[in-house]
Known about the structure:
Elements: E1 17-19, E2 22-24, H1 28-63, E3 65-70, E4 76-80, H2 85-90, H3 92-97, H4 101-144, E5 147-151
Antiparallel strand pairs: 1-2, 3-4, 3-5
The protein binds zinc ion (ZN).
Amino acid sequence: MGECLGCKKKLGVFEGYTDSDGEYCKNCFPKRKSILKLKEITEKEEKKRIEKKLKEEERNDKLGKRIYKQKASGYIEEVGIGFNGWAFFFGPLWFLVKGMIGMMLLVFIGNLLIASFFGWIGSILFCIIIGATANRTHEDHLIKKGYSILKPKRK
Ligand SMILES: [Zn+2]
């Protein structure tokens, strides 16, 4: 007959295995089959991965988030956009959770001082300012730690 498409070996009569693109010897045929199978699996997984990523992006879009990544570690951080209700309600605790210790102390002491000078109205105003600036502060903090923005999501 012809020759093997894999190793170019001459094939005797009835020696070749026919595939979609031609004939292969008994060594190359199973190799080719497993490569095709592997390719199929990889393509399927790649498709799944892309679909998942698109869904995630859509979700983030709806939530209005920005994604930051630290190049050295590969860590991902999400930052909200607009007013941050968690920072408004939990103030210093929120900054502690996000690893901004300096800001935690600043907000804690600042709120005590403002409350003692201006009462609860002053304290609430202070919390509103904190809620309104928290996401921006968080972004600055991440940038200082070597994060850079992956997806700027703006509403
Ligand atoms: Zn061969």
